[in-house]
Design goal:
With 382 residues, this protein is α+β, with helices and mostly antiparallel strands. Helices cover 27% and strands 26% of the residues. The longest helix is centred in the first third of the chain and has 20 residues. The structure holds 1,3-dihydroxyacetonephosphate (2 copies) and magnesium ion (4 copies). One 1,3-dihydroxyacetonephosphate (13P) binds next to loops.
């Protein structure tokens, strides 16, 4: 029988700023999901959070984008948002961009990562969840896990991984997707995913047999809402072991606190810091961007676990480095490259400030207007 793992998440309002989910809002949502479990809509669920993002890890047998499962979660999020309003929490209902549910959660604000799979005799998987960053933030570690032999020893020494993987990439600006194969198209893949704001790894399959190995939330809130409504704070499901990267190979990909877009007001680069569930609260400059990893097994459709994977002294040095990088980046204040580049700032509140200066620019004689957009470079080169 096929099982579906769904990770569905949203910011429904948070305590003391964009800081952390209030336990009372999780309690309210849990009640709704427990009812859904009693009714047999879902088999099992684990409610959790990272920073101000409420996350549900759910197992069921209804497939991806299922109306009943999504409606159940929508109701849980709505109830939680009502509780958030009642408590006066900050930005109550932040990611719930639509008023009424119609079919599934797509385009409504919540992040969606789902995989329908044939459960293996042992089905270990990890759910990675980040706050104060965007879906493309997982491009770098996913490349390391599934395409970099310096990270994943199995790519070299395990015949099941040795043929490589297929990466499905979404261009969120054009609304197009492309699939590239590794190792043979690794450089083409990097040419795209090195621009994580635009090209996002959505799914990864094992090339040998098309086995689905990883799924990422790719919803971009500002592109849905047409204005800045916070960051998209991604989550992903990564299956591990038995001819896939080992658990430790997936975690190894987070040993460099690489720079991601997000942090304060969704407008700054900062290091992604892997933390325990206990430390999954945004603090300094609303960050630094944080990552939680929970390890599970799926057995007969039930969730076994989790293990809080970064609650571990093996990641102390990564966190220390992240704090050093955070200090260094912060010293740039409002200057790039701490602040995001202008193309991306167009999706923040900065254009409102620029609007005020508009009439004050004076034309300089003898100067040419440059074509600035990096996304129309083929025109500018002609
Ligand atoms: P075990 O022999 O402990 O199962 O380890 C196998 C493995 O692949 C470790 O990465
Ligand atoms: P969130 O997307 O996590 O709500 O962040 C919004 C923000 O502006 C933080 O400074
Ligand atoms: Mg928020
Ligand atoms: Mg958030
Ligand atoms: Mg957000
Ligand atoms: Mg073992």
């Amino acid at each position: 029988m096929k099982s579906t793992i769904s990770v569905l998440k949203a910011d429904i309002g948070s305590l003391a700023g964009h800081h952390m989910v209030h336990p009372d809002t999780i309690a309210v949502a849990t009640k709704v999901l427990s009812e859904g479990k009693k009714q047999g809509i879902i088999n099992d669920f684990y409610p959790t959070f990272v920073g101000d993002d409420m996350e549900f890890i759910i197992s069921h047998n209804r497939g991806e984008l299922d109306q009943k499962v999504h409606e159940l979660v929508w109701n849980a999020l709505k109830e939680a948002a009502s509780k958030a309003k009642e408590l006066g929490l900050y930005a109550a209902g932040q990611d719930l961009l639509s008023d009424s549910f119609s079919g599934n959660l797509k385009g409504m604000g919540p992040g969606i990562a789902e995989m329908e799979i044939e459960e293996r005799p042992s089905e270990p998987f990890v759910v990675f969840m980040a706050d104060k960053t965007e879906p493309g933030a997982f491009n770098l570690p996913l490349f390391k896990m599934f395409a970099d032999p310096f990270n994943t020893a199995g790519l070299v020494i395990d015949p099941a991984l040795h043929d490589g993987f297929k990466f499905e990439i979404l261009d969120v600006y054009e609304g197009e997707s492309i699939t590239l194969n590794t190792p043979e198209e690794s450089y083409d893949l990097l040419a795209l995913i090195g621009t994580p704001d635009r090209y996002i790894i959505r799914r990864i399959y094992r090339k040998q047999d098309n086995m689905l190995a990883a799924v990422v939330t790719t919803e971009r809130l500002n592109l849905i809402a047409g204005k800045y409504v916070g960051k998209d704070d991604p989550a992903m499901i990564v299956r591990v072991q038995h001819g896939l990267p080992a658990l430790g190979e997936t975690l190894e990909a987070f040993t460099v606190p690489y720079l991601v877009a997000g942090w304060m007001r969704g407008s700054h680069y900062g290091p992604l810091m892997p933390v325990s569930q206990k430390d999954a609260r945004a603090t300094r400059f609303d960050g630094p961007p944080r990552l939680v990893g929970l390890g599970f097994n799926l057995k007969n459709g039930r969730l076994v676990g989790p293990s809080d994977l970064f609650d571990d002294p093996a990641f102390d040095e990564v966190r220390r480095t992240a704090n050093i990088i955070a200090d260094y980046m912060r010293r740039h204040g409002p200057f790039m490259p701490h602040r995001l580049e202008p193309q991306v700032m167009e999706y923040t509140t900065l254009p409102k400030v620029m609007e005020r200066l508009k009439g004050r620019f004076k034309k300089e004689e003898g100067t040419n207007k440059a074509k600035a957009s990096i996304y129309t470079s083929s025109e500018t080169n002609e």
